[in-house]
Write a structure and sequence with these properties.
- The complex is a heterodimer.
- In chain A, helix 12 packs antiparallel against helix 15.
- Chain A folds into 2 domains: 65 residues, no CATH class; 232 residues, MetI-like fold (Orthogonal Bundle).
- Helix content of chain A is 72%, strand content 2%.
- Chain A is mainly α.
- Chain B is mainly α.
- Chain B has one domain: MetI-like fold (Orthogonal Bundle), CATH 1.10.3720.
- In chain B, 76% of the residues lie in helices and 0% in strands.
- Chain B is built from 13 helices and no strands.
- The longest helix of chain B is centred in the last third of the chain and has 36 residues.
- The model of chain B has no long low-confidence stretch (mean pLDDT 88).
- Classes of the chains: A mainly alpha, B mainly alpha.
- Chains A and B meet through helix 1, helix 2, helix 3, helix 6 and helix 7 of A and helix 1, helix 2, helix 4, helix 5 and helix 6 of B.
Chain lengths: 316, 274
């Protein structure tokens, strides 16, 4: 906007003031503000914010999905917390979160660091193929992994047998020891390449001048990555941590398709357990209690990441 | 030594890259095999090519209907979200009102509330609003949950534009609606395109909501319809399972092969803008 200059004539200043007032009227049009903001805020409120209130409400009720059969206080919560399956589901969910944070994301970061050093055609091929699983529908990917884990002719056991490790050829999805890691691998594999691409985008945004000084000092790939790239990637890392942790927490589709929570109830995640309690046992009260505990867990994790990772933004 | 290392790393990366594509190739391979051949020859080329798997799969699996539903959901969600989201983002970034800071934080809350949390009340609401069995019962929540990131991204984009953009329009006597639709929207087209790609990918591959709210076969999208086909066919006939997987993925594969750069740009836009 123009600045009022000491040598301006009165008429000029008047015009300027008129203009500013006109713009203020233009951007302060109350009806327009309402028309622009209300529909989106309404939709958001109805579907995202409002449902939390009936949810809290139902979690204190005995409710079969159609009728409220009276308030029972904290009984739903007590039932949930005393339920072994709930804790098993939590263990599974946090196992996936753990593997994602400490194994899958570092692998993605490593891919990204190597991608940065690749030749252009090679990089394009790698980008194309590694992002591919994230584009294909979950149902297809999960079903594909059922074939990979197939005990008789599956890919994994065929490889193991070819290597002479017949003893290791297990029935991966029906063995209670291997089922959760097997699902975790399938789920995390799907997004490995996408996360690598996101890391790589962050690396590309780092100005090359930072590296010139390091090269002069004789720093190689590993030193430069450790001392320059990774610290400067903090913002991207934080974003990916939040996204991938929330994604793992909400894991449902792969479990539903690959094992339906089985064998027994061994491989349920928290969301799957909530789904099962609410829709298969028809106990909406208990389901809502699980949902409330689940959202508290998500908020706690987001809070922890915000507290400890990349508290200050980096500007280049 | 250095050169050797480089060659090794390149070979390993090519192998990893191929391993991301291999399962899809394997499914294509299996889709041409008979029921029994999958068991004794899972990896080699088919000894006899069974093309009837595709015909049989299409007979039991209502692909056109599910595809149409998926497309309706994706396009509907894109239109609704981008229309409402761009208006709100404009209003938050350019217009002067008291509660815009509050509104911005309010809409940001959507980023940390997963849709799984509210599914039970959502189902109850869908029933009581009489939307059960209608396609709107999915488009509305899809759109509501896509709004937060859409608004925040367009907001960041709009804030980088100078206010002079609307000044001349204002002096020429345009009203704010005309200024928004005729001047601002064309300028933020790249960001809107990015949003369209992102929302499309999320909605087209969405599973959870469709699985729970789409109890009626008529309104099921591909993700859930395909699962039902798998369940109905059991785990025995992998030839048909493979065929259904290939048919389902074909549209995605074609779109991705043609526009993978744009898709990659859209996917990474979030990181750049934040």
């Amino acid at each position: 906007m123009d600045i009022i200059h000491p040598y301006m004539g009165k008429a000029h200043i008047g015009m300027l003031i008129n203009k500013v007032m006109a713009m203020n009227r233009f951007f302060g049009n109350r009806l327009a503000i309402f028309v622009f903001s209300f529909p989106a805020l309404l939709l958001f409120t109805v579907y995202v914010i409002y449902p939390i209130f009936p949810e809290i409400f139902i979690s204190f009720q005995k409710n079969d999905g159609f009728r409220n059969m009276g308030f029972i206080g904290l009984k739903n919560y007590i039932n949930v917390l005393q339920d072994k399956t709930f804790w098993r589901a939590n263990y599974n969910t946090f196992f996936i979160v753990f593997v994602s944070t400490f194994i899958a994301l570092p692998i993605s970061l490593l891919f990204a660091l190597i991608m940065d050093k690749m030749s252009e055609p090679m990089r394009r091929f790698f980008k194309f193929s590694s992002v591919f699983p994230a584009v294909v529908s979950v149902t297809v990917i999960a079903q594909m992994w059922i074939a990979v884990y197939e005990p008789m002719w599956g890919l994994l056991n065929s490889i193991l047998r070819a290597l002479g490790m017949d003893k290791l050829a297990l029935a991966w999805l029906s063995d209670s020891r291997t089922v959760v890691p097997a699902i975790a691998v399938a789920f995390l594999w799907q997004y490995l390449g996408l996360n690598a691409l996101l890391f790589y985008t962050g690396i590309k945004a780092i100005p090359k001048t930072y590296y010139e000084a390091a090269t002069l000092d004789g720093a190689g790939f590993f030193r430069a990555s450790l001392k320059i790239t990774i610290p400067l990637l903090q913002d991207v890392t934080k974003y990916l941590l939040v996204i991938s942790i929330l994604g793992c927490m909400a894991q449902f589709a792969h479990v539903r398709i690959m094992t339906a929570g089985g064998p027994g109830d061994i491989s349920r995640t928290v969301v799957y357990h909530m789904y099962y309690v609410a829709f298969s046992v028809s106990d909406f009260g208990r389901g809502c209690a699980i949902a409330i505990l689940f959202v508290l867990e998500c908020l706690l994790l987001t809070f922890i990441i915000n507290m400890y990772v990349a508290r200050e933004r980096i500007e280049f | 030594m250095r050169e050797k290392l480089k060659v090794m790393v390149n070979i390993i990366m090519i192998l990893i890259g191929v391993s991301f594509l291999f399962p899809m190739y394997w499914m294509l391979n299996i889709s041409f095999k008979s029921k029994s051949e999958v068991y004794d020859n899972p990896f080699g080329l088919p000894r006899e090519w069974v093309f009837t798997n595709y015909r049989d799969a299409l007979e039991k699996f209502n692909f056109p209907r599910y595809l149409a539903n998926s497309v309706i959901y994706s396009v509907g969600t894109i239109l609704l979200t981008v229309f409402l989201g761009s208006m709100l983002a404009y209003c938050l970034s350019r217009m002067n009102w008291k509660f815009r800071g509050v509104a911005l934080s309010y809409i940001s809350m959507g980023l940390i509330i997963p849709v799984q949390v509210v599914i039970i009340p959502l189902l109850v609401m869908t029933r009581s609003m009489g939307l059960k069995g209608s396609r709107l019962s999915l488009i509305l929540p899809y759109s509501a949950f896509a709004l937060s990131s859409c608004v925040l991204m367009l907001y960041a984009f709009l804030r980088s534009l100078p206010k002079e953009l609307e000044e001349s329009a204002c002096i020429d006597g345009c009203n704010i609606y005309q200024a928004f639709f005729r001047i601002v929207l064309p300028v933020i087209k790249p960001a809107i395109t990015t949003q369209c790609v992102l929302i499309f990918m999320n909605t087209y591959n969405e599973f959870f909501l469709a699985f729970i709210l789409g109890a009626d076969d008529k309104i099921r999208p591909l993700t859930v319809g395909l699962l039902n086909f798998f369940v109905s066919i059991g785990v025995s006939h992998w030839g048909q399972i493979g065929a259904a997987m290939i048919i389902t993925s074909l549209p995605t594969i074609i779109v991705y092969a043609l526009g993978n750069e744009q898709i990659e740009n859209a996917l990474t836009a979030r990181v750049v803008l934040k």
